[in-house]
Specification:
Blueprint: E1 2-6, H1 13-24, E2 27-30, H2 36-42, H3 49-70, E3 78-81, H4 84-91, H5 99-107, E4 115-120, H6 123-132, H7 143-159, E5 163-167, H8 172-191
Parallel strand pairs: 1-3, 1-4, 2-3, 4-5
């Protein structure tokens, strides 16, 4: 199975990716990967829209084979920290690109995910968590960008059957229970049973 957890910076994705991967015996990965394109993106203080689009798309192409091997698989499981939905949310901010355009571009490269989770927390909570790290905010950790991204994620959860919204403003354990339940529901829908 191919599962992603998306959401704004500070929502708790990394913790939930680790916990869900452990529960499923899955491999945890990050999208942005350690490829040269992912490193370029992570190393940039304020990438232009053209750079974001090029680097995200190139990095996703690097990951495509790995993602393809897990999508729809009963034996190969990946839980990804982000997916193309993050590109949809962040690259459409203050942009000539619509969320749907970014989605179409990415879905031409990657397979269908078995489950995509939007982990929702209020923007002010996410920003407080980011501030608590004690390091400078990145170019994408700004209130207006996070607000836009949160609204895009929420719209996709409302309008797309393949995106499930989970409330991340609870204890880690409570969120983990809902994550496991969503994964089991996706497995049952795809395979008629839990496959891990």
């Amino acid at each position: 199975m191919l599962i992603s957890i998306d959401g704004i910076d500070g929502c708790g994705k990394s913790t939930q990716v680790r916990l869900l991967a452990e529960a499923l015996g899955a491999t945890a990965i990050q999208e942005i990967s350690p490829s040269r394109w992912g490193k370029a993106l992570r190393g940039s203080d304020n990438p232009s829209l053209a750079q974001q689009l090029a680097w995200f798309t190139a990095d996703r192409a690097v990951l495509a084979e790995t993602l393809e091997a897990a999508a729809g698989s009963e034996t190969n499981h990946i839980v990804s920290d982000r997916s193309y939905l993050s590109g949809v949310a962040y690259q459409s901010f203050d942009s000539v690109l619509t969320p749907e355009f970014v989605e179409d571009l990415n879905r031409a490269i990657v397979p269908d995910y078995d489950l995509q989770v939007y982990l929702h927390v209020p923007v002010e909570v996410a920003l407080a968590r980011v501030d608590a790290r004690g390091i400078a905010k990145t170019w994408c950790e700004k209130p207006d960008r996070l607000t836009w991204a949160s609204e895009v994620f929420a719209r996709y959860a409302r309008e797309r059957d393949f995106v499930v919204q989970i409330d991340g403003y609870r204890t880690i354990e409570e969120v983990a229970v809902d994550m496991a339940a969503a994964a089991e529901a996706a497995s049952t829908a795809a395979f008629g049973r839990r496959v891990w």
